[in-house]
Amino acid sequence: MSVWNEFPALSRETLVEMRKSLDNAYRGFTREYGESIEAFFDPLLQFLIAFEKLLLSTPWWIVLAVIVGLTFAATRSRKLSVGVLVSLIVIGLLGMWEDTMSTLSIITVSTLVAIALGVPVGIAMATSNRFQSFATPVLDVMQTMPAFVYLIPVVMLLGIGKVPGLIAVVIYAIPPVIRLTNLGIRLVDREVLEAADAYGVTRWQRLFQVQLPLAMPNIMAGINQTIMMALAMVVIASMIGVAGLGQQVLRSINNQYFALGLLNGSAIVLLAIVFDRVSQAYAKRSQAHLRGPGSE
Amino acid sequence: MSENNVLIEVKDLYKVFGPTPEKVLPQVREGISKDQLFRETGHTIGLKNINMEIREGEVFVIMGLSGSGKSTLIRHFNRLIEPTSGSLLIEGTDVLSLNAKTLQEFRRRHVSMVFQHFGLMPHMSVLDNVCFGLKAQGVDKNDREARGRQWLRDVGLEGYDTQYPVQLSGGQQQRVGLARALCTDAPVLLMDEAFSALDPLIRSQMQDQMIELQEKLHKTIVFITHDLDEALRIGDRIAILKDGEVVQIGTPREILLEPADDYVESFVQDVNRARALTVETVMKPARDRITATTIGAALEYMKKASVDFAFVESKEGYIGSVLKEELEEAVAADAKVSDPLVPEYISSEASVEESAPIESILTEALQSPHPLPVVDDTGNLEGVISRNKLAQLFQAPDEEKPDRA
Ligand SMILES: Nc1ncnc2c1ncn2[C@@H]1O[C@H](COP(=O)(O)OP(=O)(O)O)[C@@H](O)[C@H]1O
Ligand SMILES: [Mg+2]
Q1: Beta carbons of B35 and B41 less than 8 angstroms apart
Q2: SS3 per residue for chain B
Q3: Which of A101, A200, B286, B367 would give a disulfide with B107, using CB separation of 3.0 to 4.6 Å?
Q4: The pLDDT value given to residue B402
Q5: Residue B380: domain span
Q6: What is the residue-averaged pLDDT of chain A?
Q7: Shared-domain flag, residues B177 and B215
Q8: B243 lies in the same domain as B304
């Protein structure tokens, strides 16, 4: 066969050899460090379990009251609070309360982890151009690499379960909060920063009293996107053992349960809408004074 | 003013922007032009060989067109910008030798700054903005808020404490900026085009307010502007900057009447000198001053000096002027030469104050047949202002040039 008809690939043996050695190297790494890495993530696992248990073991009406109460406290919007209440009641009536609580817990914890890691990384990117030029392509890869591909090493390392699921969700969902923290800080008015410096603030004072508060609208937008992406990930995460609405969707696909799939899918959408509206309304309310009068 | 101490001393300051400023500095010292340096090396000359001394309590204006390096220069005074070479002393502190910690302390206590676009913290209330510097100093909350409120009152913004900057007009925002700067009690106040973003009317109100505050506070103010009228109005001395170099430093009078080169001259050409200059800057010493107490003595002096009028003074100060013609008429009628020089013979209405703008005395001076007497605020005769002198003032600079040389 001519070289011109078929691409001259490396020989089959070479390719198998290459893949094997990569796989072996990673397996070796897994055997060597798997346990200590698992131990490292143990506190996270305990937190995840405890949080899920809290949501599931607390009487439903208390959970409902707390969620609606938080919504009202954050947004001061009656309409939105009633909307959240109705959504959750519908979900409960349709028998999806427990799965929704599981999903809620993993979304909440992964969002918290994403914020806890993403904001400092975003700050570092804003502080150092060099770090930014290194981190940007990494973020690009994280956002374009199909999620299934990085599920493999995570599962090889940590097996099936909540923590690998959480890690997958965080990897997928963290880029927006990092990017928008970086952007938000870089967009802070130069003269305002000069003013802060001119009055002799320390670096920390400048960060916490000036840069972060002024970057907050962008950081909030990043957090909002991160939550949405985390929700989009729950079905994939359920493939590696994350309980909740995603698992029911997966079951429906496997067994062709149209109605079950539709209901659970709708519940995910409803959660997404609730998170989106509440976080946006909170952001808007907390930054009202950054805009001029009459810009509501 | 001139007896005051030098508070800020800038020596041989250079600033070059670009990737390797030290490398091109020798070329800059040799006098390569801004354009050429940029074409050949991609570096921009920010400041070139700046030398100036700013005295305690004066309003020192730095003036120049956009891009002449004003903002760059003023940012050296609190080291928001690092020089490429040179030295800078403020109150005896070598500012360039400060480390991060001592620089912070220096900025908290010794210099404060007002910005062109106000530089207020949009997420903080007006009161928190005013107290910003005190918070950095570590002053406790009650104390700093009390002081902040006091300054808000002093700039005319009492009761605006809880508003946010976006809710205020430009003029009000800059008052907050001014209150924030004054709140730290720093002796040096840096103002970078502080009033340039404001409407003309508001701007002139702010200038008035600043002049008024300065009369009480006696800060050392470095004031940047691109507006010559503003510079002449508030400056005790003015430095003119062109392409990063100082072309002239002098009092408003020196800038207007003795421009150092064609560049400054073209600048001052369009200035309304009648408004910009005060009487004292153009008056001449008064001759023909007499302390005579009788008609005879006065007439005798005027005959001897062959003048037709004289200024009469007593120990208490200036009294008025007498005309030879009038006295002679009086003698021809019924007065005796030994009669005392009573007020009927002395006209005292036509004197002007030394701090008045020329504009306000123009008609009077042109109508009067004799030079107008100029008195200071204690009533002493300081000089005279003549029609000739005024005419010279309004001559085009070119025609004026030969005399000056
Ligand atoms: N950070 C910088 N990098 C490069 N060039 C600069 C920088 N800052 C100022 N310049 C240049 O220095 C010159 C003086 O600027 P500036 O001090 O802002 O002028 P002004 O305040 O008088 O308008 C200008 O030519 C400007 O382009
Ligand atoms: Mg400027």
Answers
A1: no
A2: CCCCCEEEEEEEEEEEECCCHHHHHHHHHCCCCHHHHHHHHCCEEEEEEEEEEEECCCEEEEEECCCCCHHHHHHHHCCCCCCCEEEEEECCEEHHHCCHHHHHHHHHHCEEEECCCCCCCCCCCHHHHHCHHHHHHCCCHHHHHHHHHHHHHHCCCCCCCCCCHHHCCHHHHHHHHHHHHHHCCCCEEEEECCCCCCCHHHHHHHHHHHHHHHHHHCCEEEEEECCHHHHHHHCCEEEEEECCEEEEEECHHHHHHCCCCHHHHHHHCCCCHHHHCEHHHHCECCCCEECCCEHHHHHHHHHHCCCCEEEEEECCEEEEEEEHHHHHHHHHHCCCCCCECCHHHCECCCCEECCCEHHHHHHHHHHCCCCEEEECCCCCEEEEECHHHHHHHCCCHHHHHHHHC
A3: A200
A4: 45
A5: 282-399
A6: 91
A7: yes
A8: no
Instruction: Judge whether B107 and B132 are in contact, CB under 8 Å.
Output: no
**Angle subtended at Cα A288 by Cα B155 and Cα A286, rounded to the nearest 5 degrees:** 115
Which CATH number characterizes residue B316's domain?
Answer: 3.10.580.10
- Choose among A191, A210, A293: nearest Cβ to B115: A191
Residues framing ligand 1 (Cβ under 6 A): B 17, 44, 46, 64, 66-72
Rounded to the nearest integer, the mean pLDDT of chain B is 88
Which residues in chain B have Cβ-Cβ distances shorter than 8 Å to A289? 122-123, 164, 166
Ligand 1 midpoint to CA B69 (Å): 6
* Same domain flag for B287 and B392: yes
Q: Contact B113/A290, CB-based, under 8 Å?
A: no
Cα separation, B62 vs A209, in Å, equals 32
The pTM assigned to this predicted structure is: 0.82
Same domain? B136 vs B203: yes
- Ligand 1 atom at minimal distance to the Cα of residue B34: 25
Which ligand has its closest atom nearest to the C-alpha of B73? 1
Minimal Cβ distance to B80: which of A197, A210, A214: A197
Q: Do A199 and B121 touch (CB under 8 A)?
A: no
CB contact under 8 A, A202 and B104: yes
What is the tally of structural domains in chain B?
A: 2
Has residue B303 been placed in a domain?
A: yes
| pLDDT at A152 exceeding the cut of 90 | no
CB contact under 8 A, A205 and B117: no
Residue contact A205–B136, C-beta within 8 A = yes
Rounded-to-integer distance, Cα A279 and Cα A201, Å: 31
Does B148 lie in the same domain as B263? yes
Residue partners of A213: CB distance under 8 A and separation at least 6? B123
* Whether residue B256 sits in one domain with residue B132: yes
State the nearest Cα–Cα gap between B172 and chain A, in angstroms: 15
pLDDT digits (tens, 9 = 90+) for A122-145: 999 999 999 999 999 999 998 888
CA-nearest residue of chain A to B79? Answer: A198
Q: Which of A165-169, A230-234, B37-41, B330-334 has the lowest mean pLDDT?
A: B330-334
Cα separation, B169 vs B198, whole angstroms: 10
Chain A partners of B106 at a C-beta cutoff of 8 Å? 200
pLDDT one-digit tens code per residue, B358-402: 888 888 888 887 888 888 888 888 888 888 878 877 775 554 444
**What is the total count of domains within chain A?**
2
Among protein residues, the one with the nearest Cα to ligand 1's atom 16 is B69
- Taking the CA of B47 as reference, the closest ligand is 1
Residues A26 and A142 in one domain: no
Domain residues for the domain of A4 are: 1-40
**Any domain includes B19:** no
A189 → chain B, closest CA residue: B119
B313 falls within a domain: yes
Of ligand 1's listed atoms, the one at least distance from the Cα of B244 is 14
Closest Cα in chain A, distance from residue B110 (Å): 10
